[in-house]
Automatic annotation (TrEMBL):
InterPro entries assigned: DDIAS (IPR043522), NA-bd_OB-fold (IPR012340), Rep_factor-A_C (IPR013955)
The protein's name in its UniProt record: DDIAS protein
Record-level GO BP terms: negative regulation of intrinsic apoptotic signaling pathway in response to DNA damage
Species in which this protein is naturally found: Pitta sordida (Hooded pitta)
SUPFAM superfamilies: Nucleic acid-binding proteins
Ranges in a coiled coil: none
Cellular compartments per GO CC: cytoplasm; nucleus
Length: 130
């Protein structure tokens, strides 16, 4: 699963979506289905209480090298240094902000977070293991 077949030096052109964390199964890293009280993994069948769901980073990027454009998705804890916190802690911050501000759709926080991520990544060159 973590096998790197090659390296790609490329510059980030854009961020492909605004959802940087997702509830992830601890067994297989698939996206969990959450409702208000429970979670369920459709891939491996893992279940539990929604409050115990774990979160993982998923950053989808459009990148360019000297010749081509690529869609790259970066997963997991390798993004911790860029966000300054784990995906668990970022999700907790988002949840706490929404509760304290009374936001129901979380758009205010999402817009600010997307702008921060764009500032951090767009125009910068990285080496990606593909």
């Amino acid at each position: 699963m973590n096998c790197v077949e090659g390296l790609l030096a490329a510059s980030v052109i854009s961020i492909q979506n605004s959802c940087f964390v997702y509830p992830a199964c601890q067994n297989c890293f698939s996206r969990l289905i959450l409702d208000s009280r429970r979670f369920n993994c459709l891939k491996c069948g893992c279940t539990g209480e929604a409050k115990d769901a774990h979160y993982r980073y998923r950053l989808s990027l459009k990148v360019a090298d000297t010749n081509d454009l690529f869609d790259i998705t970066v997963f997991g804890s390798c993004l911790d240094p860029f966000f300054g916190v784990t995906a668990e802690n970022l999700q907790r911050c988002i949840h706490n902000f929404n509760q304290l501000s009374g936001e129901t759709n979380a758009e205010t926080f999402t817009v600010a977070l997307v702008q921060a991520v764009e500032t951090c990544f767009i125009g910068r060159r990285f080496i990606f293991g593909v």
